[in-house]
Each structure stands twice: as C-alpha cells, then as structure tokens.
Amino acid sequence: xxxxxxxxxxxxxxxxxxxxxxxxxxxxATYAHPGVEQSTGFDYSRTQNPTREYLEHTIAALExxxxxxxxxxxxxxxAAIMELFSPGDHIVATADLYGGTYRLFxxxxxxxxxxxxYADDPESIKASLSSVTKAVFIETPTNPMMRVIxxxxxxxITQECSLLLVxxxxxxxxxxxxxxxxxxxxxxxxxxxxxxxxxDTLAGMLIVKEAALSERLRFxxxxxxxxxxxxxxxxxxxxxxxxxxxxxxxxxTAQAVARWLSELNEVTAVHYIGLPEHPGYEISIxxxxxxxxxxxxxxxxxxxxxxxxxxxxxxxxxxSLGGVESLITYPMLQTHADxxxxxxxxxxVDGCLLRLSVGLESAKDLIxxxxxxxxx
Length: 376
What we know:
Blueprint: H1 3-9, H2 50-63, E1 67-71, H3 74-82, E2 90-94, H4 99-109, E3 115-119, H5 122-128, E4 133-139, H6 151-160, E5 164-168, H7 173-176, E6 186-190, E7 204-208, H8 211-224, H9 230-241, H10 243-262, E8 267-271, H11 281-287, E9 294-299, H12 302-311, E10 316-317, E11 327-329, H13 341-346, E12 353-357, H14 363-374
Parallel strand pairs: 2-3, 2-4, 4-5, 5-6, 10-11
Antiparallel strand pairs: 1-7, 6-7, 8-9, 9-12, 11-12
Helix pairs in contact: 2-9, 3-4, 12-14
C-alpha cells in the first residue's frame, strides 16, 4: 500500500462493528475477562488499549518495523530506552543532540551508572567505542544544528560490534526517512511534533525491528507506565492522516524561506539540509526522500536575534516544532537551557542561533514577517 494511502486509512485492524470510518476512542481503563485465564487481548490500559494499539500498528507499518510502542511524550520514550542498560554500560551519542535528551543522559542516566561519549560522524563514533559500549544513539538531522549522519554507515559499525542503533527520526518522519530499513534497531519519535502536527498533544513513539527487542521494551513500558492515553492516541492517529501532504508543503515553504535567509546580510549562516551547499546534502539525497521543514540560522549578534523573537507576528516565539503553525525558538534559552554554556557553545548553540519550524502559512507571509522583524 502506498505511504499516503496508509497514512489516511491506518492499519488493517478494526475494533468496531458500526462501520465507523474513524477508529473509536476506547476510554476504558480496564476490561472484563470472559473467564478465568481468558482474555479479549485487553486487560488493563496501561498494558494496552485498542485506540493505542491501532496507532501503534499504523506507525509500525509506516516505519517498516515489526512493532511500535506509544508513550506519553518523546522523553518518556527515550527514558524507556535507557532502561535497557545497566550500570557500567556505555553509549555513544550524537554530539549535537536535543537538549532534553542530553539532560536525561547527563542528569539521570549518568547518575544511574551509564556513561556517554559524544561524536559527530561514523569515524568518530567508531573511535569512541569501548568494550562496555552497548548502543549508539543518533539524531539525523540533528537538533538544532541540522547536521546529517550517514545512518547506513553507522549501522554497519553497530552490526559489526553487536550494538543497538537508535535513530531519532522526529525531524523527517517516516515519510521522508526510514531508519530501520537502513540498519537501525529502534526508530524514535517525539510524536508531539510532525506526527501529531497540530501542537495540541504530547506523544512519543518507539518502532523496533526485532520481536525480542519489542518484548523487552513492552515489559519496560507496562512496568514504568508512561503509556499514551486513548484520546492522545486518537489525536496522533488523526494527525498522521495528513502527514504526507503537510510534510510536502512544509518542505516546499522551508526551501523558499531558507533561500531568502541565505541572501540576508543580517544572517551569517543558514542550516537547512535542502540547500545544495549544506555539508550533509549528498547524504540526505542518499538516505532520505525529502528535506523537511526545519531551519536553523545564525544572525550577526544577540541584539538581532532578540529583535526577531520579539517582533515576529505570524511566526510565534515558542518551544516546539512540526505543527501547522510556524514557530521560532531560541535554543540557548529554551531547548538547550540546561546544557552547560561551554558545551552549548562548542556545539554552536549561542545567543545568535535561532531555530525555525516552518508551518503551513504561505511562504510570502513568512518571509514578509521575518523581513519586518529584522527591520527591512
């Protein structure tokens, strides 16, 4: 089935006999047993719920995985992954990493005895491995610097060393990029972002390649209990119905905005993987079918950055991405506020960097809004 058709119609599981077009919201917390040691397949909603199962089957099919597990947020999904590891284990992660993930690694996982190294490319990832390394965790494109990592090249390293490979696929979604067929073991999403697409709910997704890994993660999910509610599962399912058309439109607009930004004297760098001059452009062409709607750009000084943030009107100054509304974020004070200043600046996250999530407004209006905010 074509990707766009699967987005609209979802998985082939049905839970309703009325002919309802939309999968129902099953708001029950618990389920009656037909008899002793008998089950309908649903016992308690922390373990599974029909609305959540429908979403999970749908996203698993879109990512090309054997199973998917839906969590109450993207960070809940990352935290569940960390429960796969024990004190003394080592993980190599992308150097440029979402601040919330870095915070979890440095403040929670490290306290629990897991150690981390950070690297930017397959060669440095390989050089960072040790005898106690258990996994490699990458984002591509990275947040917020939009660096691109060759998934297949990293997968070759992890497979040779029998390591888990986790790929955060939030920015491109399975519409533009599918890490599992490229060799990843787990694809991760903040479903809050493009999958939901409307800035109205939180969700996290883990999609896995192997059944044995699914069993381990499902045990963790039901034990920790950070499961996605039936109503939020419905909202993410609804969002996925328009995923393909939204991603195409947002990419088209982002291309126009990125080219315009590249011509501004006030802008010193534009990080958009759809620009041919981007250092990861060729890798993107090889491993993805699109470039997405995320742009980061640096301006000449902090005063210019603050002026833009305070003067935008159509674009809203807010901390998130992937929705139909365009949002501009100040990573230094928002997504990466908990990262030590030295670490932030080493990654290029300073007072001159802005991150723009392009929504569904017209390119003309977004460019006009940025122009007046800059002072043109």
